Fold this protein.
Amino acid sequence: MQLDLRQRVIPADPFALHPRRVHEAEGLGRRAFALFQAVRHPGPLVWIVPNHIPELPMLRGLPRGVGERLHLFRPNGETDLLWCIEETLRAAPVSLVIAEPSGHLSLTAGRRLQLAAEAGGTTGLMLIREGAGSNATETRWQCQSVASPSADSTLHHWNLNKNKKGTIGSWMVNWNGASAAVHMVSEAGQRHKPEDTAP
Amino acid sequence: MALADARAICPDLATRAADLAREAAVLASLRRWASRYAPMVATDGVDGLMADISGVPHLFGGEADLRGDLQARLDRAGLHAATAIAETRGAAHALARHGGGIVADGQLAVGIGHLPVTALRVDHATAEALSRVGLACIADLAHLPRAPLARRFGQGLVLRLDQALGQRDEPVVAEPDAPHFGVRMTLPDPIGLQSDVMAGLARLLDRLCAKLAATHMAARRVRLELRRVDKGLVVVEIGLARAMRDPIRIAALFAKGVDEVDSGYGIDALRLTATVVEALAPEQIGGGGSAIRHEDALSDLLSSVGNRIGFDRVLRLLPATSLIPERSFLLAPAVYSEPEPMSHSSGSLRPITLFPPEPATVASGTPPTSFRWRRMRFTTLRATGPERITPEWWFDDPAWRSGLRDYWRIETQEGPRLWLFVTPQAPGWSNPEAQGWPASARAQNWPAPGSAQNWYVQGEFA
C-alpha cells in the first residue's frame, strides 16, 4: 500500500481547468462541477442558459461568494446562445463562462469557442448532454454524484475522459457544495463497494 | 365663484377637474414659443408669462405692432390671452390682469393709477385693510409717504408699490431651458458606405458627449436616425448597460445596427439623440487602475449582449426576503441593478438548482422509499426532513394553492441528491389499482381522498 501511494504521481491540483481554453462537463452532476469551478475562479462569472431550460441556479444554495459575481444570460435559440458564448469568452474581464448548449456542438463551433477563449483570456466550461461535445475541447469531465456511505459526506465521481495536454484520471471526491477545497476520497473501486457492516 | 353658484346660474354647466400638471406643461411650451419675441421670457405665476422686451419692439414695428402680432398669433392658436406692455414688471402684471394695454414711457403713474390696489400682488388681508381706510386705487397710494404706509400695512405693500412704479428694480428671471441632448448633421451629398456613416456618427457622438459632459449627464439609450434621400427614415437604437458618455465605446455598440441599415439611394442627414439620460458626476480618469477598466469592460459586454438578446435576458440573482423557494431570490436585469451580497445565515440546506415542481410518480411511503422522476427509478438511501414551508397568506400564488409543503432532502442510492416535497393538505392522486377501486372509478379517474400523496421534485443538491 505504501509503495502504491509513492508510485502514484498526483498532480498538484488535478481539478484546475487549463486557463484560456474551453472545457466540457457531462453527466448529471455537471452543474455541481461547474459551481465547484466557479468557486475557484475569482472575478465575474457568466452562466449562459437557454431560455427553455427550467433549471436555474438557486441563490441560497450557491457556494459563498458566487451569487453576487454571477450573471445569467438566457438567450433564445441556438444561434444566439453560441453568439453569447463567443462574445463572453472574448470579453477579458470575465473569469469563467459556464454555458449549457442544448444541441450537439460541431467541430467548427468548438474551434471558434477555443479561439475566442484564447483571444479574451477567459476559461469556458460547456455543460453538455451525454456525448454531445465537440472534439475541439481541451478536457472533458464525466460528473456523477454518488451515494455516500455516511450522512456528512457528499460524494462526487469526477472522471476526466479526455485531456489534450495531460493524462486522464478518475477521482472520487467529497465536496459539500460550499468550499473551494475538496477532500479526495480513496480511489473509486475500493470505496465503491458497500462496507461489510450491515447486519 | 363657487361651483354651486355657477350651477344655479347655468344648470347645464359642464365641469372638469383642473389638471395642474398639464396646464404647467402647456405654459412651459408657450414660454418656449414666446421666446421668439424676447430673449428673456419667464413664467409669471401659474397663468402668466413675463417677457423682457427691452430693445426688441422696433424689430416688430413698435410696441403696438408687437402686441398686435402676439395677440393675433395667440388668437389663431385658439388661446384667449390678455397682454400688456409697461415699463416695469409690476405694472405690466397689473395691467394685463385688468384689461391689458400699453403704458407709454414715463406715464407709469397715470397708466396704472386707476387700477385697484388688488392689482399690486398684495395679499388679501392687506388689500382689505387698504380699502377700509379708503385707499381704493393705486393713484391713492402713489403720493403717500412710504414710512407710515410701511408701518401700518407692512413692507410687502411698499415693496410691491415701488416695484410697480419703477422705484425699485425687479428683473425678469427667465429659467434656463432644459438642455436638449440631440445633435444633427446634414450632408451636401448622400452617403451609402458603412464607414462613412460610422465616421459621421463619430462626429455626432463627439458633439453629443461634449454636451452631456457639460451638464454632468450621461446617456442610457441613444437613438440614431438616418434620413434617406427618398425621405425614408431608418432608426437604430441602442441601450447601454451603464450610463456613459464615452464616444468610442458608444460607437462600438452601433456597429451592428448600422451594418443592417438599408441605405437605399443614400443617406443625407443624420440625427443623434440621447433618449434616456441619467446624471453622472465627472469621473477621475486614469489613476483608477485596472478595477475601473474591468468594470467598464464588463458593462460593455452587458451592453453588447443586451442589445442582441434583449436587456431583460441579461440577469443577475438578487436575494429576496421570502421563505418560499421560488421567491427567495429575484432575477433582475443586470444593467438596472447592483450586486447585493448574500447574507449567509445558518438556515437549512438549499439545493443548487431549482426548477418548477415535477411530479415524482410511483412514490410510496413518507418519505418515499422509491419513486420515478424524469423516467428514472430512484431508491431512497437517506432522507432529511421534513422542513415545513407554509404559503404566504398575503400573497396569492397559484403554485401554492395546494397549501403547505413538507420538503425533504432525499439522497438516492443512484447518486443524485434531490429536493422533494409533499403537499399534505391537497388530496393525492388516485392510485386505483393499489387501492382496489372499482373499474368504473378507475375509468373516471376520481381522486381518492387521503389515500395517496403527491410528491414533487423541485431541486437538486450538490
Remarks:
- Strands of chain A lie at 22-26, 45-48, 56-57, 70-73, 96-99, 123-127, 139-146, 155-163, 169-174, 183-185.
- The two ends of chain A are 29 Å apart (CA to CA).
- Residues 115 and 165 of chain A are 17 Å apart (CA to CA).
